[in-house]
Design a protein that fits this description.
Number of domains of chain B: 1
Number of helices of chain C: 5
Radius of gyration of chain C: 13 Å
Largest sheet of chain C: 5 strands, parallel
Largest interface: A-C, 40 and 35 residues
CATH topology of chain C: Rossmann fold
Structural class of chain B: mainly beta
Radius of gyration of chain B: 16 Å
Shape of chain C: globular
CATH class of chain B: Mainly Beta
CATH class of chain C: Alpha Beta
Oligomer: heterotrimer
Number of strands of chain B: 11
Order of helices and strands of chain B: HEEEEEHEEEEEEH
Distance between the termini of chain C: 12 Å
Chains: A alpha+beta, B mainly beta, C alpha/beta
CATH superfamily of chain B: CheA-289, Domain 4
CATH architecture of chain B: Beta Barrel
Strand order of the largest sheet of chain B: 8-1-2-11-10-9
Helix content of chain B: 10-25%
């Protein structure tokens, strides 16, 4: 294999993987809507492109397999075969097999796969379920025509004069009376290029360097009077930085789409009916987080269907709709990316968990737990609620693994559940390496970044606005509401000489607003949230670190985290409420 | 600790490489494999309310690192002259940590025989050392990089 | 044979296929190759090209605007109507070639094809236009 061929093969695998991903949804929707021509067209195009290109780059097995699938899809497209459950299942298997092959070939370009059974199945469907004449034509044809195609460039080398003959034979084989116009689909977004995460990391770091140099150049340019060039250089560098920062972010969509498949397979296996709702697929997360999110999500979903949802009979008996609802929703909340998995199943029975925990010796006999504490027992290592070993969720690998996985990402898992009504799992993931809109502020002689999303309002402090009382938290009155005031420098640095607290940031926690006095707001900018270094990881209020435009590292301060606890402690003892 | 070295004394004649540096007037060294690079002291963003030996954060080509001052941790008086100061970036496998030193000396090639166990010294903790390096008629203390990992433990300076 | 400087447009919705065709063309000596990812983009390239393309090699089955659609467009625009046009087809599409012939395609090649096969076709096309 020469270099070009190797490169080409890898390019193809990448392109094929993208096609696969773009088509995944169509495969799944096909089951709900087997007569949807757009879906069939999309899948047909997928198989068609894959076949032609895989053959051209020399992946004969993919070509051979997709050829069968293409034939079947053509029949479906032409309404000769109706895509029933069995056919959709077989097509999904085809989808899986292609993925396995792509992955396998990516590792070893000479890999060989066993897909004989699947090809036979595909052939059998074409042969068995088509109306007799078409079936007969196909039964005889595929092998022969396939052989002809792979023999080097035989057909291709034929001259144009031979076309009529060729047309005749092909026509009898494929029986294509009417050609349906391929439905127009909106064009899929840009082409993509696979780049290693490492290289992105290096790029991000280099851009950081660039920005530092740029600031030096910019200031010397400005000094020499060339403000215009300095400014355009600055803008250019900023654009490059923004772009390089955004490269690591991916939508959660693809991780979600895998779930659709899991739901389908799991519910089939358990004979349950599940309606899956995916919300917030466009929410972006860091690629690394997205990748480590897959397993925990799959586990929770399987659990929800296996342990959470009732059988259709049980549901009807309980006065619920036959079909259980599982909702997966992604959104940003404060400093977290939240993924919330809700089901409307039977909920977690805390009482049963307690009994179980006691019988297993996980908790002592005489221990009293609140309902919530009882529910959280499911995170206990080795705790499985179902009596029998389930094929789906398995045993031994429990929610404790999910918890550990999420925590190793620096996140946390929360659960709420109500017997009879369902359960809700919240995965809270820190925006590690994510980009946030930050506000660069000055307080206590320091430049700090605070997440802009936490700030409701910015107030310029005038003399007399803040009321100070001995031994009490100072407050200011904002639109007839009492707002306690904190000073960032109390917790974060010290006011250097000549610095004043001129600005108050209004932050809201639940129903309570509070003000944070700072010296100045420098500017707003997007920052990449980098993890805090180990040495400051456990420091209260540190959300992460970042590198500012001038190349200096800075701390990102989580105002909510820093002050909400303080606020809670004080609010109960403080009497400022009465002062109003 | 000492038994480890007795055992290995005759095992090999291979030399080990160390980076020698000064903390105040004292000579220390660390295994060269633990050193990622040495940089001139960059601008450091202080971390408010952090322990005194934590200097702050630096930007090492896009990675944010903590720089610590071992002298403060070990109770060593810094030299007056800061012109030779440098920051050694240590590669501690799970992360990088910068350490301010007064000056960089040189790379030492030391045979097994030149590595002596840490002497027992009545009650004084020497747990931050892995050994004593004999070279050029001089003794250099071989620092245990693990002490850099532990952000909270106080390591007392051994009585000379 | 075609002048190596002839601007060639390669149209295919699969980037891997475009790469293959372009590589073969380069191996055949062509130096001026433009790629387009579907018929619509190809038409844009054709209508905006500073120097008219001397050869178009297009895949047949593409979303939005197929190779056949593109062919029809080219043949009905008097500015570019005389551009040599080669369609790349899958074997299953060969029966439809008649329509392409009616629409004025010069040659067609069936995927997968070798360098020699494409060269043979191109020589035929060139002869036709040189005559």
């Amino acid at each position: 294999m020469d270099d070009f061929e190797i490169e080409l093969k890898h390019d193809f695998l990448q392109e094929a993987r993208e096609l696969l991903q773009n088509t995944e949804q169509s495969f799944l929707e096909l089951e709900k809507d087997p007569s949807n021509k757009t879906l069939i067209d999309a899948i047909f195009r997928f198989a068609h492109n894959l076949k032609g290109t895989s053959r051209a780059v020399g992946f004969g097995q993919i070509a051979e397999l997709t050829h069968r699938a293409e034939n079947l899809l053509l029949e479906i497209k032409q309404d000769k075969i109706f895509a029933n459950d069995h056919i959709v299942s077989t097509l999904l298997l085809f989808n899986d097999q292609v993925r396995v092959m792509i992955d396998g070939l990516d590792e070893n370009l000479d890999a060989v796969f066993d897909c004989e059974k699947l090809m036979q199945d595909l052939d059998a469907i074409i042969a068995g379920e088509v109306t007799p004449p078409a079936a007969a034509a196909f039964e005889a044809a595929p092998e022969a025509s396939f052989e002809a195609e792979v023999t080097e460039v035989g057909p291709a080398a034929e001259t144009f004069e031979e076309v009529p003959v060729e047309m005749e034979t092909q026509a009898t084989v494929h029986k294509l009376p009417e050609k349906k116009e391929v439905k127009k689909e909106p064009r899929k977004d840009d082409e993509t290029l696979r780049v290693s995460l490492n290289r992105l990391e290096v790029l991000n770091n280099l851009v950081g360097e660039l920005v530092i140099i740029q600031s030096v150049v910019e200031s010397s340019l400005s000094k020499s009077g060339d403000v215009k060039t300095a400014r355009s250089l600055g803008k250019l560098c900023k654009d490059i930085q923004d772009l390089s920062m955004s490269l690591r972010m991916v939508p959660v969509g693809p991780s979600f789409q895998k779930l659709a498949r899991i739901v389908r397979d799991t519910s089939k296996l358990l004979n349950k009916k599940v309606d899956l709702h995916l919300i917030g697929e466009e929410t972006e997360i860091d690629k690394t987080v997205a990748e480590s999110l897959g397993d925990p999500l799959v586990h929770i979903i399987r659990n929800a269907i296996d342990h959470g949802l009732e059988t259709p009979e049980e549901r009807l008996a309980a006065g619920k709709s036959e079909e259980g609802v599982v909702e997966v929703m992604a959104f940003h909340e404060g400093n977290f990316l939240v993924i919330q998995i809700t089901d409307d199943g039977k909920g977690i029975n805390g009482q049963r968990l307690i009994e179980k925990a006691k019988s297993k010796g996980i908790i002592p006999e005489n221990m009293n737990l609140t309902e919530q504490q009882a529910i959280e027992l499911i995170f206990h290592p080795g705790f499985s609620t179902k009596e029998e070993v389930s094929e789906v969720s398995g045993r031994g690998v429990g929610m404790d693994v999910v918890k550990t996985n999420i925590e190793s990402l620096g996140g946390e898992v929360k659960v709420r559940s109500k017997v009879g009504a369902g359960s809700c799992f919240r995965l809270m993931l820190p925006l590690t390496l994510a980009i946030i809109d930050g506000m660069l502020i000055k307080a206590g002689g320091q430049q700090l970044v605070v997440p802009k999303g936490q700030i409701q309002e910015v107030i310029k402090l005038e003399p007399g606005m803040i009321t100070k009382m001995t031994g009490r938290r100072p407050y200011l009155t904002l639109r007839n509401t009492i707002v306690p005031v904190f000073y960032l420098e109390e917790d974060w640095g010290t006011l250097t000489k000549g610095e004043k607290v001129d600005i108050a940031l209004i932050v809201r926690h639940n129903d309570q607003s509070f003000a944070i006095g700072i010296t100045d707001i420098m500017r707003q900018q997007q920052v990449v949230v980098k993890p805090p270094t180990k040495e400051i990881m456990n420091k209260h209020g540190v959300m992460g670190t970042t590198i500012l435009g001038d190349g200096k590292p800075s701390l990102i301060i989580d105002l909510l985290n820093l002050y909400s606890r303080k606020l809670r402690q004080e609010i109960n003892v403080d009497t400022i409420g009465k002062a109003a | 600790m000492s038994s480890m070295f007795n055992k290995e004394k005759n095992a090999s004649l291979e030399t080990q490489r160390f980076l020698e540096f000064n903390l105040g007037d004292e000579s220390y060294a660390i295994g060269l494999l633990k050193v990622k690079e040495v940089i001139t002291p960059p601008e450091i963003t202080p971390i408010p309310k952090a322990p005194a030996y934590v200097c702050g954060l630096i930007n090492l080509r896009g990675t944010v690192l903590t720089v610590i001052d071992l002298r403060k941790k070990l109770g060593i008086q810094p030299t007056q002259d800061v012109s030779q100061n440098a920051v050694i970036i240590f590669d501690l496998e799970e992360r990088f940590v910068g350490v301010v030193v007064d000056s960089i000396q040189k790379v030492l090639n030391i045979s097994e025989g030149g590595i002596k166990p840490v002497p027992d010294s009545d009650g004084q903790s020497m747990s931050h050392l892995l050994g004593i390096l004999h070279h050029d008629d001089k003794l250099t203390m071989w620092l245990d990089p693990k002490m850099l990992l532990d952000g909270t433990a106080t390591v007392l300076k051994a009585a000379a | 044979m075609f002048n190596p400087n002839t601007p060639v447009l390669v149209v295919d919705d699969m980037s891997t296929m475009r790469k293959i065709v372009s590589k073969i063309l380069r191996d055949l000596g062509f130096t001026n190759i433009t790629e387009a990812a579907d018929g619509t983009l190809a038409w844009e390239a054709i209508s905006k090209a500073p120097a008219p393309f001397g050869l178009i090699i297009s895949d047949w089955n593409m979303p939005n605007c197929s190779g056949l659609d593109l062919l029809k467009k080219v043949r009905s625009d008097k500015n570019v109507a005389k551009t040599p046009f080669v369609l790349v087809t899958a074997e299953a599409e060969q029966h439809q070639v008649a329509e392409a012939v009616k629409s004025g395609v010069d040659q067609y090649v069936v995927k997968p094809f070798s360098k020699d096969a494409l060269q043979a076709k191109l020589e035929m096309v060139h002869k036709k236009y040189a005559a």
